[in-house]
Design brief:
With about 350 residues, this protein is of the alpha/beta class. It contains twelve helices and eleven strands.
Length: about 350
């Protein structure tokens, strides 16, 4: 764990998750983020190149059993065109994301990675699901820098209830393998998943922190009409903000994105999170003709206008909050651990 990290007990986390001292929590998270990153917010251009998925997660609109999704797959040429646009906008990182779509062979992804590296001086983050160790090794050797593999929860019972047929132990082992391969590695949780309690969430925070990850993601549950959780209540934005703020205190130098799921529940909540400890935003460069079809939850990729208009709006929002959009790579920078009460 990094220098200056807060160390909380389970009981202290429960109190803070319940809102016992939001003013202190959010102010301290903002101060730590400013100390680490000044006023900069890293912009990462994301290309969601396939919405096919072999899984049937109960919370996700891309689940294989959902026949109402208009499915798409981008060709390598379309992916590279989107990446070229990200580079032209000056961004230092591209995020390649898809559902668990094994139609894309490992060597195809590796070729895309190599081509990006040959064209542009930028970091590559992959978020391609639970792939095999040999694939992850190949992609790392091809030049991929980071990998995001979310758990959504680290509670075995809740994990099984939300992700049928997924293997908890295999996914946890995959995260360790990613670290061993030299990836900057990320994971995260969904707050207020059906069945989640503050007790589970507090344990999730402790587990996430103990893993010494480089990227930590959290966002609120958003009910999707074409899933088994369609009738469950949406998550609470304030609780999601508390979780990201706590993650900042416990992991001061980690990269923590403000997710679009916040805006899906309350417009402006994503920008608000950037003033409460988050330091990354990932605008979508998915081609306009399929942009809205990456519908993992209602409100995802729902912003009107083209990418230039969306970026201009985002920049204005950041400047209005006293924040500066940064196009730097924004690599992780973990430090040796010294505890602090």
């Amino acid at each position: 764990m990094p220098i200056g990290a807060y160390v909380f007990t389970h009981e202290q986390l429960l109190e803070l998750l319940a809102g016992s001292d939001d003013d202190w929590l959010f102010t301290e998270a903002a101060n730590i983020a400013t100390g680490q990153f000044s006023s900069e917010v890293y912009l990462r251009g994301i290309v969601e190149f396939s919405n096919y998925c072999r899984n049937n997660c109960h919370y996700c609109g891309l689940r294989a059993a959902n026949r109402q999704v208009e499915r798409y797959r981008l060709t390598p040429e379309q992916i590279l065109k989107a990446v070229d646009l990200i580079a032209a906008m000056g961004m230092g990182t591209v995020v390649l994301q898809s559902g668990d779509d094994f139609t894309y062979r490992a060597d195809t992804i590796a070729a895309i990675i190599r081509e990006i590296k040959s064209r542009h001086d930028m970091a590559i983050t992959l978020s391609l699901g639970d792939r095999q160790l040999d694939e992850l090794t190949l992609w790392r050797e091809a030049g991929a820098d980071r990998y995001l593999l979310k758990m959504e929860t680290f509670d075995r019972t809740l994990f099984a209830a939300c992700r049928p047929d997924a293997d908890f132990d295999e996914r946890m082992a995959r995260l360790k393998h990613l670290q061993q391969l030299g990836y900057q590695t990320g994971s995260g949780v969904i707050t207020d998943l059906p069945g989640m309690t503050d007790d589970i969430l507090a344990r999730d925070l402790l587990t996430l922190t103990s893993m010494e990850l480089d990227m930590l993601a959290c966002g609120p549950f958003v009910a999707h009409a074409q899933t088994p959780f369609a009738d469950r209540p949406n998550g609470d934005v304030q609780r999601s903000h508390r979780v990201s703020a706590l993650l900042r205190l416990m992991n001061p130098d980690a990269n923590i994105p403000a997710t679009s799921s916040l805006d899906a529940l309350r417009p402006g909540a994503r920008i608000e999170a950037l003033g409460r400890g988050c330091n990354v935003v990932m605008p979508s460069f998915t081609p306009q003709e399929v942009y809205a079809s990456y519908n993992i939850y209602p409100g995802k990729n729902a912003a009107a206008g083209g990418i230039q208009d969306r970026l201009a709006t985002l920049s204005q929002q950041l400047f209005h909050q006293g924040l500066v959009p940064s196009q730097a790579r924004g690599d992780a920078r973990r430090n040796p651990y010294v505890s602090r009460n």
